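Review form for a predicted model. The reviewer records the input and the model, then writes brief findings.
Reviewer: anonymous (R2)
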Amino acid sequence: MGARGEVRVRLAGAERRLCLTLGALAEMETALGVAGVEALAERLRGLSARDLMVVLAALLRGGGEGALAGELGRAAVTPKEAAEAVAAGFAASLDG
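Model under review:
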């Protein structure tokens, strides 16, 4: 593990860094149309595929993986990989 709250996961055939930063939280709130962490938490309980991509992209950008975040719609990432990566990103922020 690298920086506090950072986790490494395998996505699109390579190891990637995810990190739940304040900027990532703000990006998620804006993209998902919610205000505040409580509203975001409620929204995260029932993610659509689009929501999952938004959250994963924000976590990737937080980890310095902006290139993959920008190409996520075309990347070879399975729904299972995406869901597991998002879960790992949030878990790392709680452990860090």
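Findings: The mean pLDDT is 91.
Further findings: Residues 79-95 form the longest helix (17 residues).
Recommendation: see findings above.
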